[in-house]
Amino acid sequence: MADVDEKEKAEKLAAAKKRFDQLRKQRGKAQKPSESKKKDGAQEVDEETAASVTAEQGEDSAELTKSGIDGNNDGSSKASPDNKDGTMLDKSSTDDAPGTPAQNPAHNRQPSLSIQSKMRSSSFRRQSLSQGPLSPSANGTKSPDLPTLTPDGDSVNSIYRKQAARLDELEKENRRLAKEAQDNEKRWRKTEDELEELREASGDVAQLKARAEKADAQVEEFNKMKQENTSLQRQNSQLQSQSSKRHVSSASVIAKPSSPLSSLQAQLDSKSSTIESMEMEISNLRSQLDKSASSTNTHSEQVSALEGKLERAERAAGAAQRELSDVKKSLERASEKAVKEGSERTSNETKIRSLEREAEESKKDVEESLQRVDTLEKKLAALTNLHKDSDGRRQAGERERERLEKEASEMRRRLAGLENENLRLREERERARKRDASGADDEGVDELEDEERRRLESKVRSLEGEVYELRRGVWREKRRELGSADGDEGPASPGSKFDDVDLSGGTPSYRRQSMAGPRGLSFQNVLSSGFSAFTGGGGRDSLETFEGEDEFDEDAFRLAQEEEARKRVERVREVKRGLKDWEGWRMDVVDVRAGGGGAGEIFDI
Length: 605
Known about the structure:
Helix content: over 70%
Mean pLDDT: 68
Shape: elongated
Protein name: M protein repeat protein
Region (Disordered): 1-158, 171-457, 479-517
Number of strands: 2
Radius of gyration: 65 Å
Number of helices: 16
Oligomer: single chain
Strand order of the largest sheet: 1-2
Structural class: mainly alpha
Order of helices and strands: HHHHHHHHHHHHHHHEHE
Strand content: under 5%
Low-confidence stretches: 48-108, 131-149, 250-258, 487-498, 501-524, 533-550, 594-605
């Protein structure tokens, strides 16, 4: 069990060491992007300082000349109080900078951001002062002051001073955190040394455990020998009791040579000698066991002390890891703050420029929109005039179309009247011709012709009345009345075309009627009757009424066709549903094919 515990502890220590190495590598990787971010921030600061310098060039010429002389002598620009504050920050940063290489010689740290920004700003100012036409004294004009960027009235210079001070504070914080990281690394190395010592002590403990195991094996052997000794003693006592009994019971046995007793005595002596030697060995083993127990006690005390040290080292390592994580988080927060402040500083000026551009663009857009509104109003007026003209022309065209339709209907009516008159005159001429051909004395035939003519005229008038009613839509109301009165047995019902069939097997009534009547039924009539069963023939008479007419209601005709088609489809569906009841039946059309009188028995099982 102790070996297992030691292995687990060793594995934990190795895992902790690996984690610490990974954290250290991650910290090194994080420092590289932070340095690159710092360089980017320095470039942004340089750009901002350059912009601020160009704005500050609009101050008095005397101050600019003084700042130029001081810049040539000292190597840094001190033209404004802002730059003086920057030089103070520069001094503080340069005082702190020499201490960093001594603290962390492994890292080749560059100059701070404030130093780099001041160096670039001083060089930029030298260039600006060396150029004659760009100086304010040459032009004789003064640039306006920069506008305030905050509600409190802070200008760009004050914001720059605050940001420079903040950058110096962040650099100091970074140096402090780097120092803490070095201290944590030293503590981690100390814990590694202690772990090495603990590992060496664990080797000694393993040797002591091996010796203790050997002592336990010897004790087990001693116990076995002791058990054998007790068993031999019992056997010896039994043998002695048996020998005494034999000696008392019979004297004849005593007179005999005691060879078995002598052999037993010899065995007893040898066993007693072995017992004595084993007792000596047992005493030696006991002494060795006591020594090993004392040594194991001392080693166990050492192991417990080492375990305590190991636990303390593990706690210290955990604390160091936590501190490292805290340091890493603080470094990340500081770098994020620096980047955020730099981005905010650059975004303020860009926002100002963008707002100015947007204001100019909005003014231009307003002017363009006003021009567009004027042009659109003109176009709207022109379109309204065009709309009025087109509306007048459309109304005139509609009136002309209505007039033409009325004239066309009148012409159709007159044409129908003329056709009727022409037909009547043709009939009269035909009758006169026939009358002249047949003679004047055929009065009976004339009377029959007159009667037939009157009957046909009355039929024509009735048909004309029906056509007029159909055009008005009266036939729909009559059809509804007939449908409500007769139900499904109306004139349009396909069931009215069928006959009753007796399925009992006897001669049906319709067969007797067909046999009594004319025997001219053919296979074509049967097929036509079958088709009419599926399609229905009630609409044929109504369709014939429309033949020979020039005008009819197309909408009514279309609706009538749709109604008939719908009823036809419904009838087909009913027939198909009813066919399931006649599955297994067979149709007998032999008599029909033979040309017999009427149809035979229709269904046969």
